[in-house]
Amino acid sequence: MNSLLQTLYFTNQLRKAVYKMPTESDDSTRSVALALQRVFYELQFSDKPVGTKKLTKSFGWETLDSFMQHDVQEFLRVLLDKLESKMKGTCVEGTVPRLFEGKMTSYIKCKNVNVSSTRVETFYDIQLNIKG
């Protein structure tokens, strides 16, 4: 999770959008947006290690869940979903899909009959098989 948060922090357009999200009226214990703003702020200005406890708690993950190893892909999906929802209706709406969404086109053509089919699907992550 820490390496993912550092990667997101160094994605300049995302970091700027996160800072621009309005969080003034958010519940400080439940707001993923506010917790991520704090993590990014600490990464930017602190010389000390940055804690992620408030961020994981804002996800609604109980204490026991925090100690379990969450899949980083799952964490990213939940985080991006919450950010995308929070950004709706603001000046940074559309940032998440613009930065992270891809499109895949599936094309099928029948050899025996002159019929073809095309389908476009959006995705936020790609599964890679790693040998080793």
Automatic annotation (TrEMBL):
Top-level lineage group: Eukaryota
PROSITE patterns: USP_3
GO molecular function: cysteine-type deubiquitinase activity
Annotated signal sequence range: none
A GO cellular component annotation in the UniProt record: cytosol
Pfam families tied to this protein: UCH (PF00443)
Domain USP, residue spans: 1-132
Keyword tags: Hydrolase
UniProt record, GO biological process: protein deubiquitination; regulation of protein stability
Keyword Iron listed: no
Family membership: Belongs to the peptidase C19 family.
Protein name in UniProt: Ubiquitin carboxyl-terminal hydrolase 7
Organism per entry: Pararge aegeria
Organism classification: Eukaryota, Metazoa, Ecdysozoa, Arthropoda, Hexapoda
